[in-house]
Sequence to fold (257 residues):
Amino acid sequence: MALADVIIIISRTGGAFASRWLHVIVGITWIGLLYYFNFVQVPAFAEMEAAARNNAIDKLASRALWWFRWAAVATLVTGIMILLFQKDGDKSQIFSGDYMKSVPGMAIATGILLALTMFLNVWLVIWPNQKKVIANARNVQAGGEADPNAAAAGRKALLASRMNAIFSFTMLLFMVGTAHFFLPGNFKFAPSGSDRGLYWAIAGIIWLVLELNALGVIGGTKPGGTNIIYDTHKAALWAGAVLVVVYYAVFYLILKA
Ligand code: HEM
Fold:
């Protein structure tokens, strides 16, 4: 074996390992902060006086949001790196149609669908709206007039953030399950086209309805109605738990061996 081949094999193995390791580190940073916002910061801010809350938004939330959104970018980048390193590695053909038609391929595609949606919620909904909330808090602290649109912006960010918390449990089921659980043996070796079509139809509709709901397209942005799942962080926790069971049941019933 030529030296160049050895170097390629080592770097590929190392790259496959490093990208997975980094992916989990930045992934827990992102999702850890997501849980901090949902389960700690939002309930705490609700009990704080306006002046203290504005100071915390300015000094604390703004910093947490920096780590949050850039950890989301790093998670996406390292996730793509895992796919690239796998291309010629032991789990070959990850980009070929065949991989995506297999049970592990369908599992990671589901995880990525949810994670990408969460990423877009961070960058297109949560962060643009939180920027308005932070700007308002700083302005009010400096003695300026409160922005009348800040509360509505905060509400939009909250809905997307609670939706991300709800998605996160199912997303992680598929991320981790791909290599450790959704394997041929327990599941079909080569699911038929109709099995795959049925799975994607059901999984896709659930995903679409939930995301449209979080964006206010279905139930508006007010509490109650279909937004009941975002009304408290405990409601979001329950909704997340139910969603894992539903997604797992759909996957299992259609794709079990
Ligand atoms: C943003 C888009 C994301 C992409 C494109 C992505 C991609 C991937 C890929 C390709 C894998 C390897 C699957 C396999 O075992 O073959 C993976 C595994 C994993 N991902 Fe993600 N991921 C994303 C988001 C996340 C997030 C937000 C987390 C949160 C912590 C996460 C945590 C994990 C974990 C824990 C594993 C399992 C590692 C292992 O079992 O070796 N991922 N991801």
In short: The mean pLDDT is 93. Residues 3-47 form the longest helix (45 residues). Helices lie at 3-47, 50-86, 97-101, 103-141, 150-180, 193-214, 233-255.
